[in-house]
Amino acid sequence: MFTKEQQLIEEKIKLFCQANDIALAELKWQPIPFAGEWGFATSFFQTVANEAKLGKGNKVPVPQKAQEIATQVAGQIGSVDGISRIEAVKGYLNIYFKTSDYAKKVVDEVLTSKNNFGRGEKKSERVMVEYAQPNTHHSFHIGHARNTILGEVLARLVEFAGYETIRASYPGDLGLGVITVMWIYEKFYKGQEPEGVHERGQWLAKLYVEATALLEKKENETPEETAKREEYDAERREMYRKWDAGDEYVRNLWHVTREWSLEELREILRMLDVKMDVWFYESEADEPSKLIVEELIAKGIADDERPQGGAVIVKIDEKLGLTKEKYRTNVILRRDGTTLYLTKDLALAKIKFEQHHVDRSIYVVDSRQSLHLQQAFAILKLWGFPQAEKCYHLGYGFVSLPEGAMSARRGRVVLFKEVYDEAVKRVLSVEAEKSADIPVAEREKIASQIGLGALVYSMLSVDNNKDIVFDINEALSFDGRTGPYIQNAYVRANSILKKAGVTSNELRDASYDYELTKHEIELIEQISQFPQKVQQAAEEYRPLVMASYAYDLANTFHSFYHAVNVMQTEDEKTKNARLQLVMAAKQTIENALRLLDIQSPDVM
RNA sequence: GCCCUCGUAGCUCAGUGGAUUAGAGCGUUUGCUUGCGGAGCAAUAGGUCGGCGGUUCGAGUCCGUCCGAGGGCGCCA
Q1: Domain shared by A207 and A66, yes or no
Q2: CA-to-CA distance for A494 and A93, rounded, in angstroms?
């Protein structure tokens, strides 16, 4: 915002150093650690260290010498427009802005940009974010929720930072797990179908558990039990064979049951306000991926060991000319000619690059699949895709339960919908106590917004590479560093504006030339940081950066709210300026929450 | 055996080279009843940043090594 002043001063420093024969190191500007006044600073430690290496100067300690230079420079700069003062402190040169100018600039920018405050300049790259890859014929659990929330927030950040963004979902709709559910349905539950989208999805998950129990080898089986189990397994394998051969009946059964799962997935995405641009299905990648195997063999990238009774493999390290083991060797086609996960990922990447013309592709996938994805990217590179260099795996730690890892097979999972229902229930009970004035009809909607706010924020407030042990009481806490805490700051800002009867449309000119309190200054400081936080979070692929910022902003607002009573401000001009500051804070909180996929209720 | 991630306050986590005392939340102890809704504010106690060595003017942050935890490693996804 103040690059002109910065450049001017930089010139003056360079001139001074030339005149005094000082070998100035590169000037790195940074904000002054905030203590009530805005400004930017640079240090002279590097310059002094360089001088010392050249054998110049006597043996004065570095910090002391840096301070000497800073003091001399400060004395030389003189007055600069928009700059209130310049000082030398501990080897740093601090340059302060005029407080009232800075404050007005920040607030005005928010109020004119509104929803777009913080949006980055349009960039030419097209980015695809792939997330939400649950298996069908199961139900959506909180592990899937972490994946989906991370992916969606990343997509929002990248988009708001200025990139053209495509959201892609990739459900796993084939494999033995899927067939297992179809088998038990066909055998014991044919014709049944629970009412309700979630009920149907959850029912399929129950069938999977039941089927697994029937098909798993048990200890101390009687011969009859063994025979029964083997009979079931043969039936299941026969069904898989028929599916693979395109048997009309089995394919139809597959379509119908798959749709039950997808309906539930679409409903959950709707609840999370996720709008997918592209749907890839694992089943659709199967056939194209076989052609890719042929191509890779023809190009000499893959080795066909089938004639020797083996599979089709890619010796990745060898082909890349690496001597140390890194990507190893992997199979891309089984000896029986069927494809693997890796094979399908190659086909999917080809579609992303050739049909969607993406320049950059982000995979939001469990970090345990890191090697797998690195292998896939390496093969894409061998294959010759320039975008392979721009494939990025955003890994995240897995979500487990206090009693151990989740297991769909054993039915040991916590479903997203269960947690959501519990969240709404808990918020409603708080509302009944604290928000008796809100009409009951409205409370349900607010409860959903707050409940999801708590859940979503709990997933975002931990860095993505950390594992989470899911504790529902922590996830649904409403106190302290939580989603509702941030939403409450928004509600309070809204409440002030409502009482004052001002809307964002009537923008009166405000000036901040009165003596600002510490709390006003800190609030302005937080607001001003939003645009750079957007860029940082998007460039580093780190939703946590935005989650932390949103909390800090809300925290600063709560302190301001408590310390400065806007409505009781006597001086009209000051009151007007404060109302506009509240409006700017409200807008910034709303923008930050939107990026975090959390809604901003007007009351709560 | 090789590779990846992690080790910071009692607990859960921020902080990826720069400014006297390393920051939050929960939990602890204690204040805030006439005020824009207390899902809040203010204060309090609590840390050899896993150990050792190195690079640097400067290291929780970079490098090496050791210890500890979790994860991955050619026909699962």
Answers
A1: no
A2: 40
CATH code for the domain in which residue A29 is found: 3.30.1360.70
- Is there a domain that residue A449 lies in? yes
Q: With 0.80 as the threshold, say if the pTM is over it.
A: yes
Protein chain A, residues 323-342, with a C-beta closer than 7 Å to any atom of nucleic acid strand B: 325, 328-331, 334-336, 340-342
Q: For residue A220, what pLDDT band results from cuts at 50, 70 and 90?
A: confident
3-state secondary structure of A528: helix
Within A26-174, residue ranges assigned H as helices are 45-53, 62-77, 99-113, 142-160
Between residue 260 and residue 299 of chain A, the positions with Cβ below 7 Å from nucleic chain B are: 282
Q: How confident is the model at residue A101 (pLDDT cuts 50, 70, 90)?
A: confident
pLDDT-derived band at A57, boundaries 50, 70, 90: very low
Do A91 and A208 share a domain, yes or no? Answer: no
Tokens for A215?
């098909």
Nucleotide nearest to A174 (CA to C1'): B77
Is the pLDDT at A66 greater than 80? The verdict is no
| Distance of A578 CA from B40 C1′ (whole Å) | 20
For chain A, the domain total comes to: 3
Q: What average pLDDT does chain A have? A: 91
A393 touches strand B (CB under 7 A): no
ipTM: 0.94
A381 touches strand B (CB under 7 A): no
Q: How far is the CA of A345 from the C1' of B73 (A)?
A: 19
Q: Which of A157-166, A503-512, A516-525 has the lowest mean pLDDT?
A: A503-512
Nucleotide nearest to A552 (CA to C1'): B24
User: What domain range is A39 assigned to?
Assistant: 3-97
Are both A83 and A183 inside the same structural domain? no
Q: Is residue A44 part of a domain?
A: yes
Report the percent of chain A where pLDDT is more than 70: 95
Q: Name the band, by pLDDT with cuts 50, 70 and 90, for residue A218.
A: confident
In a domain, A397, yes or no: no
Judge if the beta carbon of A390 is closer than 7 A to nucleic acid strand B: no
Hey, is A412 helix, strand or coil?
Answer: strand
Strand B proximal residues, A:135-174, Cβ < 7 Å: 135, 172
How sure is the predictor about A505, in pLDDT bands with cuts at 50, 70 and 90?
low
CB A49 within 8 A of CB A31: no
Cβ of residue A517 lies below 7 Å from strand B = no
- pLDDT value for A127: 97
Shortest CA to C1' contact from A310: nucleotide: B75
Q: Are A386 and A185 in contact (CB under 8 A)?
A: no
Which of A19, A62, A18 is closest to A44 using CA atoms? A62
Distance A34 CA to B16 C1' (A): 21
The residue among A275, A301, A332 that closes a domain is A275
Asked if the Cβ of residue A1 lies within 7 A of any atom of strand B, the reply is no
In the predicted model, what is the mean pLDDT of residues A25-44? 72
A111 lies in some domain: no
One domain for residues A455 and A586: yes
CA distances from A144 to A149, A177, A204, A366 (A): 9, 17, 16, 10
Q: Which of A46, A81, A97 is the last residue of a domain?
A: A97
